[in-house]
Design brief:
Blueprint (H helix, E strand, L loop, with lengths): L2 H21 L4 H8 L3 H13 L3 E5 L11 E5 L5 E7 L3 E7 L5 E8 L6 H18 L7 E8 L3 E2 L4 E2 L13 H9 L3 E5 H12 L8 E6 L3 E7 L2 E2 L30 H5 L1 H13 L4 H10 L4 H9 L3 H25 L3 E5 L7 H15 L8 E4 L6 H16 L8
Parallel strand pairs: 3-6, 6-9, 10-13, 13-14
Antiparallel strand pairs: 1-2, 3-4, 4-5, 7-8, 10-11, 11-12
Helix pairs in contact: 1-3, 2-3, 6-13, 8-9, 11-12
Amino acid sequence: MSKNTETSSNLAIHTIIKLVWNEKTITRAELSRLSGFSRSTITANVDTLLEDGVLVEQPLEGQEKSNSKRKCVSINQNRGIFVGIELDADCCAVGACDIMGTLLHEQCIALDYIDGPEAILKQISYAIKSSQKALSGRNTTILGIGVGLPSPVDFEGGYAVHPAFMPGWHRYPVGPKLSKLYGCPVFVDNEVNTMAFGEAFLSEQYRGNDILFIKLGVGIGAGLIMQGSIYRGNSGMSGNIGHMRVDGSTVQCKCGKIGCLEALAGGGALLKQAEQLAQNKQNTFLQKVFEQRGYIELSDLKEAIKRHDSKVIQMVEESAHTIGSMVGSLVVFYDPKAVVLAGSLCELGLQYVDSIRRSIINEATPWIKSDFDVNVTKFGDSIGVIGSAMLCISNLIHNGAFVNEG
């Protein structure tokens, strides 16, 4: 085969895989129409991909029992697995997905960053082995790994950059280490970026659009999706909303600055305020919990809200308003189709989410269209793992690397 013929064949194969992945199922005729390649080129390369086990073919939906010869092709979802890893402030979720982003298995492990990156990567390796054992009925060859880190990330280098609470992780080669260990491609990004990407790709109403994804947990972060792709900024640190200053605030942030949104309205700030209520004997329920346990958890705030505790409700409402106003200003600037909320603080209930939504819309009106919306992710706590896996899958598909794996 000549070099030009080989290049043309590779281009056709990569184009076919991208189209099949994007469309999920597609006929050969549609592949020819969308790709611009001739029927004979499509037929030859689809047959090769079927023989190699990259694609599978089945009758069109609804024609399984007919005599029609019309068939459609799809990606072979049992060719291997993609591992998604999401590290948070105190835990790590590890999961396995198929190539279409379907979550097959997930587990969470507790983390103590004092242990250092090598010890934590060992914990993650044990969790990956556990997932493979749990999926023993299918092919568990690891085709790629995606990692979301709770810090700024150098995407090309695959490592964290000056993480706030992860000693020993600055420029630690997470991507290269995992790639060498598992013999597969590894992609590392900020955890909110991976969440945002998973949401944007898997939600039909957001695919290819601009969205603003906000994670509300111990800290606060944002992921920006522009026309379906992650926007990382010049230095890879876009979306650092948690360290934008709230006018008039004098609260000291752990980053060293004054008045950061995270220090005023993040999960850590709420728990700190709740403990002050308990210690000052301003809340009987929280005081009792604090005396028995020595600290307050998010679940305690949820319980206080259920008990219609006015001080806790007011505290949470003020936090929601502060966050919503800041996000609303970003909406005016960025003009996304939607804002998607995720993270543990969303568990505080509909009233908390609605307060954020109202504040966003009040701040952004009249510069938003009628189809603009604010929603909580429909993928729940799993969006981090799914998004990390999807980041890897998407890069392999669009770089033409998937056909060479497995």
